[in-house]
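Ticket closed. Logging final result for Enterobactin synthase component D.
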Amino acid sequence: MTPVRHLRDLASASLPPQVGVAVTNPRLPNAAIYPEEAGAVTHARPERRREFAAGREAARQAMGQIGLDLVPLPAGRDRAPRWPSGVIGSIAHDKQTCIAIVARDSYADAVGVDVEADLPLEDDLLATICRPEERAWLQTQPPDRRGALATRIFSAKEAAFKCQYAVSGEMLDFHAMQVTFNANITGFSARLVHGAGVLPEGTEITGRIGGTGTQILTVAEFRHPREQG
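Final structure:
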């Protein structure tokens, strides 16, 4: 089974029907880039153009799955895709795949997706990515699993950061968020340790995480707490 098929099957099995999901191959010849999108990659290398086109193709496939119009998705000044009004979404890629998830904003306030190679995090990145509390937790895990679990912390933060950025517009470093996993490392909570824009300290973003054997897929969702009564 190809990496695209593996990742698509994993994502489809873990997401509800309100969320469109599609996976494409960034190594294939260019998919269509709409004229409104082309400016983002005018001077890009061929590999980057293929990656960009594959991401937009995945996004439109995901939009079509939930009955949305297949509109252009230009990049903003921050290079993030500009989703249509009433739509939330996220795009991620590695060397083998591009994945997009899309939903209406009645589903959540923001979503974030990340895909990583299922390899141990490099030791020299551990202090940059993981807070002291996270490093302490890693020390309680089997030594041969610590590097892989550190990569999962990294992936959880990448997906959660996309969620918070869609709401706050704030760029954060990795220590701005603390990740806690459930017992079997299939779900997580990412908590802001200080405020970010409209999001107060303690804001939690939840998500799910899984693997194909060679890739890690992480999906995060954020919903504003609603007033009771």
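Helices lie at 3-14, 46-65, 126-129, 132-139, 146-168. No further action required.
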